[in-house]
């Protein structure tokens, strides 16, 4: 059962009982998917379990098939504290010692229903609270590399709102390109934040665009889906005037 959940969230055909979750492409955000699906199957795991017991066999030892998931605590990394260095992280940091901050990924969103600019700060704050890796810090301390997540991330440092109300389609493309380059340059692994969000505010929800830039250490092609689903849910809840609850 657990091997099947591994294969499903990692997008691979088969997983052996001793295959390592992170060697197969998993990360902290995908671990949340793994935990959620395992819990639905009656396996009360946490993301901490995934980081400390990285194979199907080791996780099976931690799982108790009694459905008592609530007794095991939340399915997230701790709100703040040390982050285990996965094999992929180690390879990246060892291989990219010059300007590692420049290795980013980005998405440009143009949702059919538009973007509620007033609701966006609350939605971004909820996303930062939900996903600890969006608060990642990496630094050398006394000659040793340390990775940790900060207690909180200042939304004002993450979110930028740019006026695009009078921009033509061509001008809007140029604005997006300029802000994307600036956002990539502002991604900071040492002082944070490792993610930037830019709203190109067209004066109406349907004329706005939302750019999200994140360092490759905190997001990949699989985990984008999780983040964007949570961002959409947070925006919807904030727009409705209700409390934002991402679980």
From TrEMBL:
It comes from the Bacteria. Residues 1-67 form the Carrier domain. Keywords: Phosphopantetheine, Phosphoprotein. Its cofactor is pantetheine 4'-phosphate. InterPro entries: ACP-like_sf, CAT-like_dom_sf, Condensation_dom, PKS_PP-bd, PP-bd_ACP, Ppantetheine_attach_site. Pfam families: Condensation (PF00668), PP-binding (PF00550). GO terms for biological process: lipid biosynthetic process. GO terms for molecular function: catalytic activity; phosphopantetheine binding. This is Carrier domain-containing protein.
